[in-house]
Amino acid sequence: MAGDITTIARPYAAAVFERAKETGQVPGWSDALGLLATIGADPDMARQISNPNVPRVTLRDIVLQVAGDALPAEAANLVRLLAQNDRLVVLPELALLFEAMRTAEQGLRAVRVRSAYALTKAEQHALTDALSVRLGGSVDLTVEQDRALIGGVEIRVGDLVIDGSIRAKLDKLATQLEF
């Protein structure tokens, strides 16, 4: 389902990003989408958004009321459009995609690295340098430890995934052996 949400959110994020650049309001849109993402990600609100028995108009009004005056008019129009198309569920993903477009526009690539073991500062620096060369721009590296990988690392840059983990290799071997 996460991939479906991204697919649905991407055109909205692209349109909003283009509009934000056009009007010189990228930081304002970033704030507005952050607020909407927080509202949409609230467990109670998310449950209501995914409930088919709650009318879209009611959901729209709730989101707009919770956001209050902090939401610019164009962002409120986005909420109305998303509600009309039964797409309020994409609010958190839309905000993430918008921020990814924003950082890419600035020449900065957000890279998430999962490693089975903690990476030293020297390893992180070497990885940042190598990824900067490979991706052709500055890299904002986020590292998290995940023992489930067993060994190696998994690198994510947008839709690109480089999985050099032992877990992935074992999964691939199990598939090949039909285990």
Portion of residues within helices: 55-70%
Radius of gyration: 20 Å
Strand order of the largest sheet: 2-1-3-4
- What is the CATH class name of the largest domain? Mainly Alpha
CATH topology of the largest domain: Peroxidase, domain 1
Total domain units? 2
User: Residue ranges: pLDDT <50 for 5 or more in a row?
Assistant: none
Mean pLDDT: 90
Please state the second-level CATH architecture of the largest domain.
Answer: Orthogonal Bundle
Number of helices: 8
Secondary structure: number of strands: 4
CATH level-4 homologous superfamily of the largest domain: N-terminal domain of the delta subunit of the F1F0-ATP synthase
SSE-based structural type: alpha+beta
Q: What form results from the Cα inertia axes?
A: globular
Main sheet attributes: strand count, strand direction, barrel closure? 4 strands, mixed
Fraction of residues in β-strands: 5-15%
- Give the termini distance in whole angstroms: 26 Å
The quaternary organization reads as single chain
Task: Summarize this structure as a short list of keywords or feature phrases.
alpha+beta, Peroxidase, domain 1, 2 domains, 4-stranded mixed beta sheet, 4 strands
